[in-house]
Each structure stands twice: as structure tokens, then as C-alpha cells.
């Protein structure tokens, strides 16, 4: 090991949003047991923020023993590389908030910094199956990130495929399940399937995958809270709520027509993409969590907790 490598700190997590905090809550105590350091990158504004939510998050991170640094990930690529050169493992939980091209930039910086291990922001669908041209530009970028990682051998990478966040099924703007309006919209067909996982489960499973022995490297790892068809989803919603819901199927032709009328609308893009089915789901029985006997929250239990909150 070179002097440069021996001076590196252990774990750097990018982002302390919904997923980043879930990862840190699970990872920080386990890293502390191994006497490994954990650092998180947040926006410079967050470090000195007076917003109650930011103050609460910073307090939680301090209690977890996580070092917090402010850094603008949308800024200079050379500065990003210099930051990464101080760490052995980088876990990217930033999402798409920094705009198009950011995930490729972060990935290039991690590779140029020769970090030992990189967990990219791929907490989503199977971009190998989706490929390019899905109608969702961020999906195209995610596919390109995979090609970039596979084209090199210096840095180990681990991709964790999670499906969509479970909560997104119940997001009114996405309009698959609208609890207030008591409507369910199927995307593509009622048999079209989707894999979903909660951020909390993703945080726990990411920690298990990161710390697994023998070490997982250069592999796509699949996890799932649930894999469910839109028809099954409608049945679960009615059973758990105890109410009848108006059920409407949005065909792929209808969703593509919607997309033609509003090509820049993010939710219209997502509905058209998830209606395709392929790459949006995998069998829960074959996932990392199922194989290791790790229980996860399915849609029915998620909805029950949501209604009780």
C-alpha cells in the first residue's frame, strides 16, 4: 500500500437526504465497531443552516459520530477529485438534485481519484435491461455510468438495484395510488410489475452489502422490499384501507401520447418508463435480502404504517 493510500480515511457518504440519512443511521454504528471513520458531504449551506430540519439532521449525525463537511458537488471536477483522494470508499447517495451530468462527473472523479471502492447512485431500476432511449434522460445517464465503471479495473464498484422508493407509489404527483382521491392507476397493464424498497431498508441492506465477507466487488446486487403488479397493488390498497378505489388502466399508448404532449414533464416521463415493465422489477426470492434471510417492508406493511402515522 502506498503512503497516499495509507493516509486515506475510510468511508465517505455523499448526501444526507432521505437515502443518505438512512444509510448513515445503519452504517455509522457498524463502522464504529470496526473503528472505521465515516464522513458525509452536504451542501455548504446545510452546514450553517438555521432550518429546523437541517439542525435536527446535523444533531443526529453528530450523535452518530459522523464528520460533516460542506462541499458543492455541482462545482469544480478537480476539487471533487481532490476530495475523493482522501477516502478509500465512496458511497453516493446524492440523487439527481444536482442536475443532468452530475452522476457521470462524480463517477469520473471517483475513478480519477483511484478510490478503492465506489457505490454509485444506482439505487433504482435495472439500467442494463432498460438500456438507452427509455424516454427518461436520467436513465440514459445511469446506463452510461455503468459502462464507465465496467471499462476500468482500478476501482472496485458495487451497484445496488432497489427499484423505486416504496413511498413513490403513493406520491400524488406520480398518481399511481392517490389515497385522498381513492384512485389507483395501472401503468401499461394490470400485470405489469414493479420492484419497490423503502429507504430505511436500502440503508440497512447497503450496510450489509458494503461490509459483507467475502467482499462483494464489481457486481450488481439486487434487493427488494416487494415486487408487485399494479393489479396486486390495487388489491392491497383496498384491503389495507378498507375502502373501494376507482381503478383505471393507463395503457402504454396513452402514456406515450401524454409524453409527446409534455416531453419535459418529469412525472409523465416516469409513468411512461415504469409502464414498460422490463428492467423495473425482479423476483424478490432471488434478492440479496431473501438469500440472507433479511426481512424487508412490503407494500402492505408500508401502507399500514403510513395510515397509522
N→C terminal distance: 51 Å
- CATH fold-type name of the largest domain: Rossmann fold
Number of distinct helices? 14
CATH superfamily name of the largest domain? NAD(P)-binding Rossmann-like Domain
Indicate the radius of gyration in whole angstroms. Answer: 20 Å
Low-confidence residue ranges:
none
Overall geometry comes to: globular
Instruction: Return the CATH architecture of the largest domain.
Output: 3-Layer(aba) Sandwich
Mean pLDDT: 95
Write a structural description:
- This protein is 43% helix and 18% strand.
- The longest helix has 16 residues, at 18-33.
- It has 14 helices and 13 strands.
- It is globular, with a radius of gyration of 20 Å.
- The protein is α/β, with parallel strands linked by helices and 309 residues long.
- The strands form 3 sheets. Strands 3-2-1-4-5-6-11 form a 7-stranded parallel sheet, with helices on both faces. A 3-stranded mixed sheet has the order 7-10-12. It has a 3-stranded mixed sheet with strand order 8-9-13.
- It has 2 domains: 9-164 and 197-222, Rossmann fold, CATH 3.40.50; 166-194 and 226-278 and 297-308, UDP-galactose 4-epimerase, domain 1.
- It has helices at residues 3-6, 18-33, 44-47, 52-64, 77-84, 102-112, 127-130, 137-150, 199-211, 230-241, 252-261, 266-274, 288-291, 299-308, and strands spanning 9-14, 38-42, 67-70, 87-92, 117-119, 156-161, 164-165, 177-178, 183-187, 193-197, 219-222, 226-229, 246-250.
- Helix 2 packs parallel to helix 9.
- One of its GO terms (molecular function) is oxidoreductase activity.
- Residues 11-254 form the NmrA-like domain.
- This is Aromatic alcohol reductase.
- InterPro entries: NAD(P)-bd_dom_sf, NmrA-like, NmrA/Isoflavone_reductase-like, PCBER-like.
- It comes from Bordetella genomosp. 2.
Amino acid at each position: 500500500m502506498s503512503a497516499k493510500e495509507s493516509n486515506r480515511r475510510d468511508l465517505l457518504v455523499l448526501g444526507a437526504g432521505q437515502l443518505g440519512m438512512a444509510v448513515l443511521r445503519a452504517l455509522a454504528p457498524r463502522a464504529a465497531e470496526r473503528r472505521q471513520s465515516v464522513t458525509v458531504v452536504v451542501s455548504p449551506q446545510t452546514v450553517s443552516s438555521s432550518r429546523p430540519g437541517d439542525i435536527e439532521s446535523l444533531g443526529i449525525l453528530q450523535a452518530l459520530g459522523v464528520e460533516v463537511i460542506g462541499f458543492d458537488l455541482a462545482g469544480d471536477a478537480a476539487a471533487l477529485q481532490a476530495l475523493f483522494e482522501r477516502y478509500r470508499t465512496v458511497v453516493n447517495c446524492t440523487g439527481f438534485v444536482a442536475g443532468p451530468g452530475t452522476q457521470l462527473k462524480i463517477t469520473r472523479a471517483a475513478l480519477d481519484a483511484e478510490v478503492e471502492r465506489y457505490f454509485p447512485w444506482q439505487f433504482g431500476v435495472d439500467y442494463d435491461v432498460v438500456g438507452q432511449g427509455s424516454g427518461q434522460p436520467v436513465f440514459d445517464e445511469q446506463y452510461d455510468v455503468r459502462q464507465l465503471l465496467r471499462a476500468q479495473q482500478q476501482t472496485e464498484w458495487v451497484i445496488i438495484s432497489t427499484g423505486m422508493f416504496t413511498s413513490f407509489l403513493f406520491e400524488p404527483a406520480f398518481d399511481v395510488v392517490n389515497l385522498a382521491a381513492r384512485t389507483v392507476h395501472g401503468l401499461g397493464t394490470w400485470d405489469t410489475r414493479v420492484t419497490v424498497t423503502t429507504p430505511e431498508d436500502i440503508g440497512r441492506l447497503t450496510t450489509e452489502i458494503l461490509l459483507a465477507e467475502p467482499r462483494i466487488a464489481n457486481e450488481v446486487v439486487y434487493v427488494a422490499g416487494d415486487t408487485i403488479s399494479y393489479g396486486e397493488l390495487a388489491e392491497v390498497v383496498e384491503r389495507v384501507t378498507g375502502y373501494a378505489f376507482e381503478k383505471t388502466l393507463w395503457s402504454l399508448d396513452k402514456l406515450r401520447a401524454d409524453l409527446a404532449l409534455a416531453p419535459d414533464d418529469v412525472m409523465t416521463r416516469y409513468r411512461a418508463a415504469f409502464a414498460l415493465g422490463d428492467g423495473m422489477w425482479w423476483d424478490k426470492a432471488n434478492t440479496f435480502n431473501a438469500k440472507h434471510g433479511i426481512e424487508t417492508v412490503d407494500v402492505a406493511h408500508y401502507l399500514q404504517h403510513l395510515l397509522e402515522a
